[in-house]
Amino acid sequence: MLITPPYLLFIGNATDPLSIKMARSAADWSPEKCLGEYRLDGCTVTTGCPVISIEAAAREGAKSFVLGFANSGGHLSPEWLPTIITALDAGMDIVSGLHDKLTDFPELVSQAEKVGKRLIDIRHPTARFKTATGGKRAGKRLLAVGTDCSVGKMYTALALTKALNQRDVKATFRATGQSGILVAGNGVAIDCVISDFISGAAEGLSPANDSDHWDVIEGQGSLSHPAFAGVSLGLLHGSQPDALVVCHALGRSHMRGLPHYPQPSIAHTIDLNLTHARLTNPDAKVVGIAVNTSSVSEQEALAVCQRLAEEFQLPCADPIRHGVKAIVDNLL
Amino acid sequence: MLITPPYLLFIGNATDPLSIKMARSAADWSPEKCLGEYRLDGCTVTTGCPVISIEAAAREGAKSFVLGFANSGGHLSPEWLPTIITALDAGMDIVSGLHDKLTDFPELVSQAEKVGKRLIDIRHPTARFKTATGGKRAGKRLLAVGTDCSVGKMYTALALTKALNQRDVKATFRATGQSGILVAGNGVAIDCVISDFISGAAEGLSPANDSDHWDVIEGQGSLSHPAFAGVSLGLLHGSQPDALVVCHALGRSHMRGLPHYPQPSIAHTIDLNLTHARLTNPDAKVVGIAVNTSSVSEQEALAVCQRLAEEFQLPCADPIRHGVKAIVDNLL
Where is the D-glutamate N-acetyltransferase-like N-terminal domain (chains A, B) (predicted)? Predict the structure, then answer.
């Protein structure tokens, strides 16, 4: 699954900034891949990319038309089909991170065949995965894990990769969700893999590499999430991380989507993750804590990070507000 | 996914008793569903069911033709297609637990349509599962968990269900693997579910029930297995077990299929399973230890079970050799 840049980011008539997370992730982290955004009347949000039409984007060489928005349920509304067909006709592959598959729409399949373009459903892996072997492989790996879903694991992994590369350390971001896949141009939507192959897919995603190369792997879910912990555990075992960064979001009263489940503590999250990580990598350790402090003031953010750093004797920072220098220092 | 009895168990020309595990499981635990076995020249093993031809079985009312054997890889050899078509023509659904899907063979699909019979790939769930909610539901649940794969979790769960029913306790076996599904006539091959839905599928498999009803759920894998722990964890969270039975096989030097991974201790297995089980059911407890003692003498088996019972202050028995009375006593 390889997505060809440059992308035209289609954000439809979105009005909720959260609904265009996928498009914004690409614009934030791979601006060089994003030619522009295509928006419709009524749209009140933006990726920050230049606004451009399908025709103009095609002339400028756009290769992939990205459905960069999502509604709850991940459905593909038939109202978008004419737009998608226009993009196919303009010579672009279509990329979707929705639950509904592009390939389930016969009119899209036939048009894509006709014009020789691809329909890429990045949430639906088409690769055949292998069962994990648990065998040690060369190279180093870092996995971002979390107290909960949507606490900033992808942003943390991307920030770490960028910081490592800026220091001339060989490092590759490994995407495990649809936004990350769009940023990287490839990856595996790990929560969409058949469960027998979670760990095997994770092994394949971060294969043997140079001994001084870091794979920085986007985490998924949380070992304390009643719905998704299996995904998190399989990803942890298959990634065989040498280093873990624990990600946490301030200001949450409960697990995402589950009001009756309290958040786990950072200490418990460290314990659980190390216990399990050491099954496939006895040397696994936590190298830092990344806190999403967007719900509090700048001053409070610094105070919280300082308190956590002292409590756990680990570098602690908000990757967006403070950067990840301290964590990278500790890693290296 | 509902399999209609009676079954005709097809064991081909198998020579390895382990390769007909699926057929033998049905013969052992649901003999009333098994009309007979159909075997070919060269076959040296048996389910113990009467040998019968396809034609005779059809006359006696066989409703499902079960591919009761497996080769490594789970491939469906084209050499069996004529036999399968004969069974379709004789009026039977076809049931397969192989990785290769019956529905991937166009000649089977067209013949099944023609005669109005079903192709049932029990390893490939067709249901649409929901994401787990973690919400508490009525009824009681027991989950068989293990130190490793293939240690006797299915046999233990079946033995417990039978013993509970014999004491007039309402109890239902819930199958999570292909052999169990064949025994029960329904269930979900949990390791074949998309990983986002492992826990949700487990919730759906053991739905709300009478407050004095026990779902006895077949476990899968092990929290200490580098390839399959994610499946085990998702199943554990979704099952919300009130009671766990820890299953263990004597005489193994390493995890199944992974010579470089030692077996976890029973104590560690209890700890890990209780830690995670209590996320979705704070009252979860271990009610017994089931030991597969087939690798040792009768005398040694008794000695081991007695030693473990004392060490863990829990009833401990080999369900096949000693029955599960002590565990059921403790459960009730």
Answer: 41-125
**Cα–Cα distance, B153 to B309 (Å, whole number):** 18
User: Quick one: which of B116, B121, B251, B260 has its CA closest to B182?
Assistant: B121
pLDDT score recorded for residue B73: 72
**Mean pLDDT value across residues B134-152:** 97
Report the SS3 class of residue B99: coil
- Give yes or no: residues A116 and A149 share one domain: no
Nearest CA in chain B to A124: B194
A293 within domain boundaries: yes
Measured between beta carbons, the chain B residues lying within 8 angstroms of A132 are 226-227
Residue entry with tokens 């053991």 = B206
- Give the domain CATH number at B281: 3.40.50.300
Strand B93-96: give its sheet, edge to edge.
B34-39, B7-12, B64-67, B93-96, B119-121
How many structural domains compose chain A? 2
CB spacing of B231 vs A260 below 8 angstroms:
no
Q: Kindly report the number of other CB atoms within 10 A of residue B320's CB atom.
A: 18
Domain that residue B155 falls in = 140-331
Task: Note whether B201 and B311 are same-domain residues.
Answer: yes
Q: Are residues B104 and B52 in the same domain?
A: yes
In terms of DSSP H, where are the helices of B101-260? 106-115, 153-166, 178-184, 198-205, 229-239
Q: How far apart are CA B140 and CA A198, in angstroms?
A: 30
Q: What is the pLDDT of residue A312?
A: 98
Q: Are residues A170 and A241 in the same domain?
A: yes
Chain A nearest CA to B236, separation (Å): 9
Q: What is the pLDDT of residues B205-232, one digit of tens each?
A: 999 999 999 999 999 999 999 999 999 9
Instruction: Please state, as a whole number, how many other Cβ atoms lie within 10 Å of the Cβ of residue B150.
Output: 17
Q: How far is B121 from chain A (nearest CA, A)?
A: 15
User: Are residue B106 and residue B151 in the same domain, yes or no?
Assistant: no
Question: CA-CA distance, B82 to B70, in Å (whole number)?
Answer: 18
Distance from CA of B150 to the nearest CA of A (A): 15
CB B183 within 8 A of CB B157: no
Closest-CA distance, B39 to chain A, in angstroms, reads 31
Task: Write the pLDDT tens digit of every residue in B260-274.
Answer: 999 999 999 999 999
B135 to chain A: which residues are within 8 Å by CB? 260
For the sheet with A7-12, list strands across it.
A34-39, A7-12, A64-67, A93-96, A119-121
A131 touches chain B (CB under 8 A): yes
Task: Enumerate the residues of chain B whose CB falls inside 8 A of the CB of residue A231.
Answer: 195-196, 198, 230, 234
State pLDDT tens for residues A17-51.
889 999 999 999 999 999 999 999 999 999 999 99
Instruction: Report the residue of B228, B232, B280 to disrupt the A interface, i.e. the one with the largest count of A CBs within 10 Å.
Output: B228
Closest to A99 in 3D by CA, of A124, A133, A134: A124
The ipTM, to two decimals, is 0.94
Based on the domain organization, do B11 and B69 belong to the same domain? Answer: yes
- Are B279 and A191 inside 8 Å of each other by CB? no
**A224 phi and psi angles, rounded to 5 deg:** -105, 10
A195, A258, A280: residue with CB nearest B226: A280
pLDDT of residue A71: 74
Distance from CA of B90 to the nearest CA of A (A): 34
Query: Does the CB of B22 have a partner CB in chain A at under 8 Å?
Result: no
* CB proximity B162 to A under 8 Å: no
Does B272 contact A at CB distance below 8 Å?
yes
* B193 interfaces chain A, CB cutoff of 8 Å: yes
Other Cβ atoms within 10 Å of A185 Cβ, number: 17
